[in-house]
Amino acid sequence: MSTPPVTAVESEAMLRALRLAGQGVRGANPLVGAVVLGADGAVLGEGYHRGAGTPHAEPAALADARSRGNDPRGATVVVTLEPCNHTGRTGPCSEALIEAGIARVVYAADDVNGAAAGGAHRLRGAGIDCVGGLEAARSRDLNDRWTAALAGIRPFVTLKSAQSLDGRVAARDGSSQWITGPEARADGHRIRALADAVLVGTGTVLADNPRLTARTDGAQDSQVARGGPRLRVVLGQGTVPDDAAIRGPGFLHLATRDVHLALGELYGRGVRHLMVEGGPRVASAFLRAGVVDELFSYVAPLILGDGAAAFPELGVTTLGEAERWRLDSAGGPAVQQLGADVRVHLRPPPSSPGRTSPTPA
């Protein structure tokens, strides 16, 4: 039996699912949104993946449909990524769709995660109409850095920087606490708590003696509420004092300057989302290595003149060599005022510009 072509209603639902996907947070999992459509094209429910450990988009949309009093049996699910087919922190979405009695699935991009792929095949085997490729390019662009991390067998890397208007992370005398205000620092703790591990260099340990815990009073996200990163990592060949605040359960010293070696070690330890917090030499090392997948820059209304630059020694000699990063609204506004400070959320330029969407098949 041939699969019916994509309808105009399903195309519109896919655009809605992509917008929903963008409300999720970047990290260990891709951004995914889903919409449940009734036989008459009405929206029965919708959902998106809110972060590692929370329900995937499809189960979230099914739960939303049921909470509205709608039975999803015989419905169509429009989703921005091929439904997963494995058990990780949650169960396989393919099985959830089969158990719900879904009749048809329209998805955008194929799942490139080998462990999770094969959902479409599983759905077809269960007698469900399944069509892929609708708005695939938009879905791939939304998750291009997650895909890059997956291909590199490394964690997804979030870089955080707090700096003055003129790009300084410390004054001339080395003082840096605090460049930003309490609202910005609280937001940084919230983002830190979403990661599996947080990393600084030995220089930051000696200068600031951080604990690298995540203080998130009243957090609603399940991963934030669990208490934050399970690993606190120091990178570098310097010494970490015995009485350093960072020591204790979850402390790890990677005595290397090689970013790729460090990422490989962390991936082997199960880290899928790493937050890098400093200092400037460490931040620049990750940028030079091309492994920063998103950047949160907290900018304070200060002008320091002299002092430590946020990202020194990047090797950029002319304007044309500099990468122009993109504003990123995933998980919230791309530009947001926090007290007296401003947070800018960015991601790198597309890795493969000029991609076009394939014809749905």
Automatic annotation (TrEMBL):
EC number of this enzyme: 3.5.4.26, 1.1.1.193
InterPro entries: APOBEC/CMP_deaminase_Zn-bd (IPR016192), CMP_dCMP_dom (IPR002125), Cytidine_deaminase-like (IPR016193), DHFR-like_dom_sf (IPR024072), Eubact_RibD (IPR004794), RibDG_C (IPR002734), Riboflavin_Biosynth_HTPR (IPR050765)
Gene3D superfamilies: Cytidine Deaminase, domain 2, Dihydrofolate Reductase, subunit A
Catalytic activity: 5-amino-6-(5-phospho-D-ribitylamino)uracil + NADP(+) = 5-amino-6-(5-phospho-D-ribosylamino)uracil + NADPH + H(+); 2,5-diamino-6-hydroxy-4-(5-phosphoribosylamino)-pyrimidine + H2O + H(+) = 5-amino-6-(5-phospho-D-ribosylamino)uracil + NH4(+)
Region (Disordered): 50-71, 340-361
Cofactor(s) needed: Zn(2+)
Name assigned to this protein: Riboflavin biosynthesis protein RibD
Organism of this sequence: Arthrobacter burdickii
